[in-house]
Design brief:
Largest sheet: none
Number of strands: 0
Mean pLDDT: 80
Number of domains: 1
Radius of gyration: 15 Å
Helix content: 55-70%
Distance between the termini: 18 Å
Strand content: under 5%
Structural class: mainly alpha
C-alpha cells in the first residue's frame, strides 16, 4: 500500500489544496472497480471522529467556501429569487454536510468519497497501488 505524500498531513490552507482534496474524492467516486477497502477504512476513522480527518474535512470545507466567495463574492450573497437570499454552491454544501455529519460521529454513505479523500490527505488511509496511480494520473502528478 502506498502512503500519502510526506506533506499530506499539513493543513488544507488554501483553495488550491482544497480543490486537490475534492479532485481526489471525484477520482475515487469514478473508479471502477471502486476502492471500497479504502472507503471502509476511512468511514471507520470518520465514525471514530479521528481528529486529523475532521480537521481536513473542516479545512477543506472552509477553503472551498473562501475560494468560491473570492471568485463569486457579492453575486452569491445577493442572488435574488424575488428577495435577497443566501446561496451556497453545491460543492460547498456537500463538503459542509460531510464535515457536520462526521463531527457528530454520524457517517453518511452519501459522503463516502469525501471521507476517503480526507482520510487519505490526513495520512489515516493509505491507498493501494492501483488507486494511487489513478489519483496521481488524475491530478497530473
Amino acid at each position: 500500500m502506498n502512503a500519502p505524500t510526506a506533506n499530506a498531513t499539513r493543513a488544507v490552507h488554501d483553495f488550491a489544496e482544497a480543490e486537490r482534496v475534492h479532485k481526489i474524492a471525484v477520482v475515487l467516486r469514478d473508479m471502477r472497480p471502486s476502492p471500497y477497502h479504502s472507503a471502509t477504512t476511512a468511514m471507520n476513522a470518520t465514525r471514530a471522529k479521528h481528529p486529523r480527518v475532521l480537521a481536513v474535512l473542516e479545512q477543506t470545507t472552509e477553503a472551498i467556501h473562501q475560494g468560491v466567495e473570492a471568485q463569486m463574492g457579492e453575486s452569491i450573497r445577493t442572488m435574488t429569487l424575488g428577495k435577497k437570499t443566501t446561496w451556497e454552491p453545491t460543492e460547498v454544501g456537500f463538503w459542509r454536510a460531510a464535515w457536520e455529519s462526521a463531527d457528530k460521529g454520524e457517517v453518511d454513505p452519501t459522503f463516502m468519497w469525501f471521507y476517503t479523500a480526507a482520510a487519505y490527505v490526513a495520512g489515516v488511509c493509505p491507498f493501494d497501488d492501483r488507486t494511487t496511480t489513478a489519483v496521481k494520473r488524475y491530478l497530473g502528478e
